[in-house]
Write a structure and sequence with these properties.
Elements (H helix, E strand, L loop, with lengths): L2 E4 L4 E2 L2 E2 L6 E4 L7 H8 L6 H13 L4 E4 L2 H12 L11 E5 L3 E11 L4 H20 L2 E13 L1 H11 L4
Parallel strand pairs: 7-8
Antiparallel strand pairs: 1-4, 2-3, 5-7, 6-7
Helix pairs in contact: 2-4
Length: 167
């Protein structure tokens, strides 16, 4: 099989090569050669949690997304966020199935009141697919979106009112 060496400005499967790094990819099969590179230099495995985090961050980047996850997971997340030293869970509301070359993603979202749910869902889907495919190299076969709730402006007022009672 004929191979070509790619350099820092070229990429294999749409993933930029690191500066000074080289990779081998089958000639004439740009984007389809990741298996060949894997078998000649070792194997790369991507854990589910990696895809969960990438998808979670990509979904939250879209305007109109208030939060992610179902009611119980959001409640637990709110408590976790208030604990000193606690970190927000970027994977809340994200479930994935990861294979060797493909992944499927399920998202649970809370949108802001007044936004077009279909437009926001479409934007989230596009951004998640682009981010996951660019960062992991996995093909995203589907992104299923469930809208669990709509965040109302008065929800913020009520939450602010309960916090101000404590001195």
């Amino acid at each position: 099989m004929t191979t070509q060496t790619t350099h820092a400005t070229q990429s294999v499967a749409g993933i930029p090569a690191a500066k000074g790094a080289t990779r081998e990819a089958p000639l004439g099969k740009e984007g389809a050669g990741t298996d060949e590179a894997t078998t000649t230099h070792g194997k790369t495995s991507i854990a589910d949690v990696v895809v969960v985090k990438v998808a979670g961050v990509a979904a939250r980047e879209i305007p109109g997304i208030h939060d992610m996850g179902g009611g119980l997971s959001r409640t637990i997340g709110a408590v976790r966020d208030r604990v000193p030293g606690g970190r927000p869970n970027v994977g809340r509301g994200v479930k994935v199935e990861v294979g060797e070359r493909q992944t499927a993603i399920d998202l649970e979202l809370v949108v802001e009141y007044g936004v077009s749910i279909t437009e926001v869902a479409g934007d989230v889907r596009e951004n998640v697919i682009a981010a996951v495919e660019r960062i992991t190299g996995l093909e995203v076969v589907e992104v299923n979106i469930t809208i669990n709730d709509v965040h109302l402006p008065e929800d913020d007022d009520q939450a602010a009112g309960t916090e101000s009672r404590v001195a």
